[in-house]
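Sequence in, structure out.
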Amino acid sequence: MAITLRTLLIETSNTYHMDILAGSNGLDHSVSWVHIIEDKSISSFLMGRELVFSTGIRQKDNSWMLPFCKELQKVGCSGVVFNMGPYIQKIPQEVIDFCNQADFPLITTPWESRLVEITQELGCMIMENRNKETTIHNIFKELIFNESYYEYGISALQQNGYSIDQKYTVLCMQILQDNSDEVLMRQLSVRIEARVRHAFSGNKSAFFQLDNQFVLILPVKLWSDDKNFVEKLLHIMENEFNLKVSIGSGPEGLPASKLSRSYQLALKSARLAERLGKGYMFYEETDVYGLLAEIPYESVLKNFYNRHFQPLIEYDRHHNTDYAMFLREYVMAGFSIKELAKNTFLHRNTVYYKLEKIQEIMGDNYDLNLWKEKMDLMLCMYIEDLL
């Protein structure tokens, strides 16, 4: 789990006399790094979740402080520390009021506290925590993709404070745009992870990137308490990163031994959300799709689908016809001749002719009037969305 501003202050506030002056409700913000900044114009270089220090050395009065804090809060910094001394002697009330209102931590430290020492110690704490996080994320990654790793992985999680009985939910987020730019994807991964860590700071969650996917593993209670996070995540992706994504969740509350299966079902849910034109889909909402997704071998679904549609697809390819599409329209019309004629703007006699032709192409053992064939065709529509 990401280290929070509260944790950093607990460890260092006495040594460096760091006092929280405003925005105490934001102390659980995660912190990705520390920077010394004297000009808000370089805020565009920040990636989010930084703790910013400033001495005010380049400023003539206090009028810069409010715009400075607003800009840092806007770009997603975790808080600001003002080094009180010859350049900052007093914090204006309007700055305090803004930080309280925005839950943006405002911290002070005396001039005698050397910023180089503070930032060095905080940086070491952040790096130590980040190394631990990376280890934990790699453990979860191995649990998903390496079945033989299970016993060692569970032992490693226990050593890091995780309960053997903990249940999890896996979230898979697919990037739907071109991801050939590896540098851009790495930058996105860092920024997205910072936002995810901030949202779930203080909790035993894990996050990693896999090609064009971002995988998030959450304790089941945390997932149950805040499913609205998915909508927030969609909003962040579209508005902050200008990315089109689809998000899917696996079954709720599976043990670590089932993480691999949970990931596969989360990925299928994300792909289904994409096919259906939705931003996200929870596994529990997949209904028939969920039953089909439980079939571990995709080839089984493909073979089932091909038995009903491949002859028509091949015929259409060689004769420039549209019988496969017409059969889909028939299923979507609820097997109603009247609805099919209405939806396709065809005369009923033409509809009958095309259905008879489909039956001829499919062979003597195929009867569109049988309930079994209709059920199979309905399942094919669901399978088509999954594949």
